[in-house]
Amino acid sequence: MKKIIGTLTVMLMFLLSSCTATFNWREVRLDEQQFLALFPAKHHFEQQTFRFEKNELTMTMAASKAGDVLFAIGAIPFDVKIISEKALIDWMKSNAAKTVQDKSEPQLIQFEVKTAGSPALILPSQGYNLKGFGPDGIYRIYWVRWVVRQHANGQSFIYQMSAIQSFKSEPTSQIQKQTTEQIETFMGGFHPY
Predict the structure, then answer these.
(1) Cβ distance 141 to 184 under 8 Å?
(2) Residue 21 has what pLDDT?
(3) Which end of the chain is more exposed for a tag (fewer CB within 10 A), N or C?
């Protein structure tokens, strides 16, 4: 009887472990937020309203977790006549930089994102690749990117792509490499309309 219970327990643990989210990349089209993206597992939505200067803005976030990495894309619609794109991104950069404690200023990365559709437009974008211990003593690998898409009809979006993995101690270079590869796949799969 103990042998049967032990075998069933091992089988149950195997089945449960096989049900945990792994990296099963899928292309997702989010028409309301006007972007196409790759997510590593089923995504869910969350909305958050926040104040920036005198304005209330709403970020709709699509997020997915696979392994121990959280992947998210936040879409913030805004009016360029009311809100300065540069001021909003500078504020977001300042908040992101606080995630990891470092004596030096984080290095801003410039990159390009192609829009979905044909012909594709090239959008200049920026972001951080951060890693290190945060104020809470937890080690994080945190990549964040900001992309602005202005449409001819006056509607604009700021997209914040982010991927984060937390560790109790500094991970090995092999684990950091695996995390980096997954994050690069996620970041490369984003295309606003």
Answers:
(1) no
(2) 52
(3) N
Asked if residue 135 lies in contact with residue 150, where contact means CB atoms within 8 angstroms, the answer is no
Residue 19 has pLDDT above 80, yes or no: no
Q: What is the pLDDT of residues 95-130, one digit of tens each?
A: 998 888 877 788 999 999 999 988 999 999 999 999
pLDDT at 183: 96
pLDDT at 118: 87
**What pTM did the predictor assign?**
0.84
Distances (CA, A) of 184 to 14, 91, 103, 139: 29, 24, 26, 19
Q: What is the mean pLDDT of the chain?
A: 87
Residue 188: count of CB within 10 angstroms of its CB: 11
DSSP string, the chain: -HHHHHHHHHHHHHHHHHHS-----EEEEETTTTEEEEESS--EEEEEEEEETTEEEEEEEEEEEETTEEEEEEEEEE-TTTS-HHHHHHHHHHHHHTTS--SSPPPPEEEEEEPSSSSPPEEEEEEEEEEEE-TTS-EEEEEEEEEEEE-TTS-EEEEEEEEEEEESSPPPHHHHHHHHHHHHHHHHT-EE-
